[in-house]
Structure formats: C-alpha cells, structure tokens
Amino acid sequence: MVVAAGLAAGAGAAAAQPAPIQSRLTGTYQMTGRVTAARYVRGEHVGEAVQRSWAFTPLCATGPCAQVRLVRGRAAGTDSLILNQTSPGHYSGTGRFFAPLKCAGRVYSAGEEVPFTINVTVTVTTTAPDGTVLAQRISATYVNKTRLNLTPCVLVLGHDSARYTGALVPG
Q1: What is the per-residue pLDDT for 84?
Q2: 3-class SS at 113?
Q3: DSSP element (H, E) containing 13
C-alpha cells in the first residue's frame, strides 16, 4: 500500500514537471558562470566565477519558439542577439561586441571585434498558473575563438569561453 502511494506521488511529480523540450524560454535568468578559457583577455582568468543577468524574449505568441531574443549582461555592457532553436529545448546564436584596445599609447574604444557563440539548453521546467510550461533552469556556453584587431598596430589578440547555469527570476 505504501509502495503504491509512493508510485502515485512519483507519477504526479513527473506530470507536474513537463519535459524541457516543451517549454517556453522567457524572462530574466540569474546566471552563474565559470571562465573555462581566457588567453590574452585583460582581467579574465580561467576558473574565475562570474554573475550575469540574461533576459529572453520569445519571438512568437505562444509555446516554444523557433527564435528567442537574448539580452545578456557582461562585465562592460550588454549584448543583444537572436537565438535559433536547434532542437527541442536547445538554442544557439552568434553575436559580436567591440572592446577597447591600446595601440601605440592610444586607446581605441572599438579596437577589437569579439565574435561569439552562445548555446542554451533548458534543463528544468515549471508550469505557470495559466498552464504555460516555462523554462525554469538553463545551462549555457559562451565561446569566443578569436578576435579581430581594428587598430593600425600588430597585436596578439586573445580568446575566451565560459559555462553558465541559471534560474528564472520570479516575477
């Protein structure tokens, strides 16, 4: 009798938590990351912990969307890019930002172009009061493989990457 009650409770718990592939990626997520590569990137070190805020806006009216806009905070600004659904519960997109670079005693505010790729995976879901299945927890990677020098100087440029996990901020 106790086993049957436990099984029933387990089945109810599974039903209350829909598969991540069915979820809508929307809202603001508090992201905790760890730098996994940092070569010639000033102020960044492998193993460094970072805190970021990422906001997702679906580009469709309901349900999981083929495209989602991501606005993510970083140490010196924000980036906005479109993520495309690559498979159910998985999104990927590319973007770029510009960073200052010192050359011959002068600082160029947009001295280097930093192209990057972000991949996001929904890991845990929740159901909103209206029945919408929402992504509650996500994991993500940020990868910058190379940078482009936009100054007249010959400089060695770096690359960086990080892994993140995050949770939907209530409200």
Answers
A1: 98
A2: strand
A3: helix 2-16
